[in-house]
Amino acid sequence: MAQGQKRGPGFYLLAAFFTLFVIFLYGPMLMIFILSFQGTTGGLTLPMRGVSVHWFGDLLTSTRYGDLGGGLTRSILLGLLALVLTTVISLFAGLAFRRRFVGAGPLFYLSIISLVVPGILLGLGISQMFQLLGLRLSWLTSGLVAHLTWTLPFGLLIMFAVLNRFDTSWEEAARDAGARAWATLRLVTIPILFPGLIAVALFGFTLSYDEMPRTLLTVGGKNTLPIEISNMTMTVTTPALYAIGTLTSALSFAVIAISFISIAVIQKRRERRAED
Amino acid sequence: MSGRSSGGGTRLVPYLQVAPLALFTIAFVGIPIMTLLALSFWQTDGISIYREFTLENYRELFTSGLTYRLFYTTIKFALITLVATTIIGFTCSYFLVFHVRSLKWQIALLLVCTIPFWTSNVIRMISWIPFLGREGLFNRAIMSMGLTSEPLDFLLYSQFSVVLTYIHLYTLFMIVPIFNSMAKINPNIIEAARDAGASGWQILTTIIIPLSRTGIALGAIFVVTLVMGDFFVARVMSGGQAASVVSAMKNQIDNLFYPQAAAMAILLIVVVALLVSAILRVVDIRSELAK
Amino acid sequence: MSEQSRIDIRSVTKAFGAVKAVNNVDLTIDGGSYCCMIGPSGCGKTTLLRMIAGHEQPTSGTIRIGGEDVTHARTGSRGTALMFQNYALFPHLTLTDNVAFSLRVKGVAGDDRRRQAKEMLDRVQLGHLADRLPSELSGGQQQRVALARALITNPKVLLLDEPLSALDEFLRLRMRVELKRLQNELGITFIHVTHTQPEAIALADQVVVMDHGLIEQAASPRDIYNHPHSPYVARFMGGQNVLSGTVTGRDTEGRATVEGSGGIRYDVATEAAVETGQELRFSVRRDHIRRAEAASGHNSLSGTAINIEYQGTFVKVALDTGLREEFIIYMQDDAYFARPIEVGETVHAEWDAAQNHHLIGLNNSTGNPHED
Fold first, then answer.
1. Would you give per-residue pLDDT tens digits along chain C (372 residues)?
2. CB contact under 8 A, B7 and C55
3. Contact A145, A86 (CB under 8 A)
4. Chain A partners within 8 Å of C53 (Cβ)
5. Which of A4, A124, A181, C315 is deepest in the core (most CB within 10 A)?
């Protein structure tokens, strides 16, 4: 809009506002990160009484903090399952939604409901349904299902956006060259959609990994990591709380970084192959 | 003509492709909500549930003053958060779309705003505690500046800290859809308006805000439903002072009053649905999304 | 080869809901010929092409290729290859892999298929770009890759969906020549959908003019141009004036005598049975019209010049004759410049009775080619 014009005072005002927002967004997290390296005698707030990794060690060795290792394992497993199922189911559903079929409208609205109904209510519904059916609640059954009610609608919406830029004549060209449905999917559709599918996978994993409201009532006897952490917030009054925050955020950032890097690498590779 | 479906006896294909999603959504979204509905009409004595129809749960719900106070507080939180996140989200998106010139920077800065979305909400919430507490950074700062001699108590474990946390957690649900809407505005329209003599303020109110309304509505739906469905922030950040609808419901569940909790849940779903349809009344999101 | 690549379309209908995109169409395309399907957008030409390719299933009717019923045969197994309007090159594959795609699907070994693809790319003069991605090519190059990808399947029939529409004028003319040369060389059937009349006239052995899901006329370009079937065809293909009048009788030579507006008499030779009192439409080629000194009242028309365009080898003069359509004369430029016409001047035009061509068909739509 302002191409070629000098930046006015409006720009600097808005830039300052944006900067403040970014500080607002990241400042507290940075604080947690710093405080997690609090000295052995340090408390929940500044000042730092020395710098140590004591609280990380405490977290790993002490049993006071609940079943953090188990929670982490379960959360990662659930995240991976959600990743795979969300990617596969959203891919095919997205492909289906390109055409008209009976029930497309109601299914779309039910998916949106799944997104906007307060998570804990859906969790309550699922847990009650399981109990009425005489099924036991467990993180791997009712828990996984509850996670998917959160990740699938997101996956579907992302697939809509990704498929918006997908030209159906690519698939027709593949069929025209003699490819059957499976070959078309494997050799044309999936490779072209791949960066978008990574985005779906990223959402699938991280949304599941951080999920809490839906999990709370459906997880059964063994908790996921966010529930373990939220229990800690009620009971733990040492910087170990921040240490777990630093660790789990680092894991989230690692997943995000890996996803972005792999998307970038795929695109780079396509470009590089083009340059040779 | 190119958009039409291809032949080859493939009429069945979309049904096969969508079957997993359809079966899942019906089984684990549709039926659970129906279960809640049924449960809300059943009887309980606090120990076991009897599958006999009663309106008692709803009668109790509607005759209790607590219900109205809970909904009042929760809707108040939702509206304050909505206003704040809309202003922040709109301003930030406006800056990114209309003042950041290179696309690369636009995307990079948007990414900066969205990365926290992928990290734990619990952690982001508790990260305010060392900042806002009596001994926290903020109180230390203003005391050392001599602005106050006593630490401010309202900062943490108050309605203020609840709303602040909501804004912190949910603003990016506003930024992304508003950014999307704004990015679709053809810059030529703004040039044309400027040529026609419109001032910056007129351009904002007559062009940019109306053309961003889909994004604002989409963001509003997210923010309202997230706040209305929250119990954890309200519980922890208010220090147990402010109760939200869901935290009260959670208490009923913990005490095994499932039918009462289900009635509360159904009422909440109805209220959320009314709020969402009020937003949809202003903007037809589905037809706008198709563009 | 010729019999093998002959196409017989019998009573083919394609309905999309209540709309019949193709309505009970019969068409025979000779093996080894170049066929152009032309018509405004939405006329059904692309749908017909896609049914031949197998990307759409006819609602009823049969399609045979080389005598073999392929109506429900799988796409890609019926001896056709389709070149898409936007080329539909696979963005993630190099040119070699794009061209080799059908071989890969058939299970041809890697080295072998790459060698064949390379040969095909050399043939379209793109061998030196074999390892590039489609996004790095110009429009004209992309089109040649699409052609190579279609031809490597050794099709009996090559289907081209508006192949030249995305190219600029210069490239379009060059590729037109290229396509014709290729078709001669390969001797297979080409079916080419277009909405550009000069393209169809220049390329085709057989032109198929369509409108509203129906074939208006299928004939050689010369026939289409000299003997249009209906007012629609005459207008759509251009170069014609469409006139009409009431039949008043037959003259001694058996020609219908037609009285047009203003009482002007036209003699229209026709083999069709015509009755006195019926309305009859006929066409006159714009380049067969002379300027006359005065109105003769017989195979002639007078009007006011409203527009004059110099076209290089001829001059296009548009007259307002009081009829709904402009009346247009193509005058040789030397004849015109010997006595130029001013806008607003009254011009008398006349022609030989032999130039009147009876338009038997009833389709009287304006035939303005819609822009896509």
1. 578 889 999 999 999 888 899 999 999 999 999 999 999 888 999 999 999 999 999 999 999 999 999 998 988 889 999 999 989 999 989 999 999 999 999 999 989 999 999 999 998 889 999 999 998 898 889 999 999 999 999 999 999 999 998 888 888 999 899 999 999 999 999 999 998 898 999 999 999 999 999 999 999 999 999 899 999 999 999 889 999 999 998 887 888 899 988 889 999 988 888 888 899 999 999 999 999 888 888 899 999 999 999 988 899 999 999 888 899 999 998 888 888 999 999 999 999 999 999 999 888 887 664 433
2. yes
3. no
4. 176
5. A124
Same domain, yes or no, for C107 and C203?
yes
Pairing relationship of beta strands C80-83 and C157-161 according to DSSP bridges:
parallel
- Chain C contact for B3 (CB, 8 A cutoff): no
How many separate domains does chain A show?
1
CATH number of the domain within which C246 lies? 2.40.50.100
Residue linked to tokens 């899942």: B24
Is C54 near chain B, with CB under 8 Å? Answer: yes
Which of B5, B11, B21 is best to mutate for the A interface (most A CBs within 10 A)? Answer: B21
Task: Give residue A216's domain range.
Answer: 66-235
Which SS3 state, helix, strand or coil, does residue C165 take? coil
CB B14: neighbour CB atoms within 10 A?
21
Q: What is the CATH number of the domain that holds C167?
A: 3.40.50.300
The CA distance from C117 to C136, in Å, is 18
The verdict on residue C370 lying in a domain is no
Closest-CA residue in chain A for C104?
A: A179
CB B33 within 8 A of CB B269: yes
Reduced to 3 states, what is the DSSP secondary structure of residue A102? coil
Which of C175, C194, C226 lies at the terminal end of a domain, its last residue?
Answer: C226
Quick one: C100 and C182 in the same domain?
A: yes
Q: Which residue range(s) make up the domain with C55?
A: 7-226
pTM of the model: 0.84
